[in-house]
Amino acid sequence: MNEHTAANDLSPAFISELQRRLGAGTLLTTRADRWAYGYDNSRRHALPGAVVLPESHEQVGAVVGLCHDAGVPLVARGRGTGTAGASVPVAGAVVLGLERLRRIVRVDPANRLLVAEPGVTNQEVQQAAAAHGFFWAPDPTSNAVCTIGGNLACGAAGPRAVKYGTVRENVLGLRAVTGSGETLRTGVLTTKGVVGYDLTRLLIGSEGTLAVITEATLKLTPLPEAKATLRAVYADMDAAARAVTRIMAQPVTPCALEFIDATAIEMVRRYSQAELPTDAGALLMIEVDGSRACLDAMAAAVADAARGDGCLDVRTARDAAEVARLWETRKALSPALRNVAPKKINEDVAVPVSRMPELINGLAALSAQYGVTIVNFGHAGNGNIHVNLLVDPDDAQQMERAEPCLSDVFDLVLRLGGTLSGEHGIGSEKRDYVARELDPIALRLMHAIKAQFDPKGILNPGKKLPPSED
Q1: Is 104-222 CATH 3.30.465.10?
Q2: Among 56, 77, 104, 352, whose Cα sits 20 to 30 Å from the Cα of 179?
């Protein structure tokens, strides 16, 4: 068997044409090289047939066009930090690694925008913007390594979304290649623009199923002068959720409003040195930013809203060292979870803020029913909860309980008026549950849109939407 061709089901003629269109050093065909591009943070894996590493928009177009003509599936990939399996290829597909499209094309402070290629990391964008006194609002916790292309593909947001919005609110336009290899430009350079349909926001969150993004025009926001950090501790999740409702109803919107439930707090207590009250049933981490002259009054207003029945303590950091101590609990959570369950199932769902207590109580009931430990934390200000099932996917008995438990979790979320994903995307992990949220008409229209952008269905097949019934 020829390791370069027969093992991946791609013809020698196709491989040769890829090489001709891309040039030296941009095509990986050995099994060892291809293996590393077959996974993402969902821990799923499939061996791609070839990996291409284009260095320009034109090369992306050439690869997509060739795959379209040959009917070969193509999966765009950033750094593989997604958790939903969106960048895991179908076996034998071409993986389009965008890691070499790493230019920040320009920063335009006068018009508060930055233009970047998809392989630039979120952190690099933040640093480039900060040099001019700005930031880009989306700030996922993986910002040091996740790419802008990945952020756009799955709709990653992060804590700041509660005040500054998600990716969709912070992108002005895109350059992309459709599934037939055509170049498409969407959007505007202004903050207003209503000509035609909004294809920019259609492509954002589409997980590479409609087009491959090769350039993005990002809307920047001025850096705040100052920031205040608060931590509020509650007797139970009901009290914390009522506090979230009060905080979000007053005029000062926090730039971060994070929560941790009682199970997570106890886990942090066991596996870290973070200082926590022994009777804490829920915890809120709150940040307020804005003008230095107004910051104390803004922080005081948020602290007043945080207090109420069931509030055990509200503490405002006085200096950088205390800020670090207050955030220690949240930062200790992920290492604690990895210690307990290195292969946990991590789902991100969202419900209306007022229904968060029902969600947390319902999750506790499902935990008891199935004998599966469930730990919850996330972005309380917009009801985006990270639901962690602490099971080992390599343990068949645990997974036998976990699968119906996860199904019931999604049913609970939908009964509460929520959605199956707030920012991690659908990929392959949630695809089979999508029809529970979307009605048949919506699904039919979405499949029709997919067919317009990608007539041969080569872009990231098997992701985002369940199979069409037509």
Answers
A1: yes
A2: 104
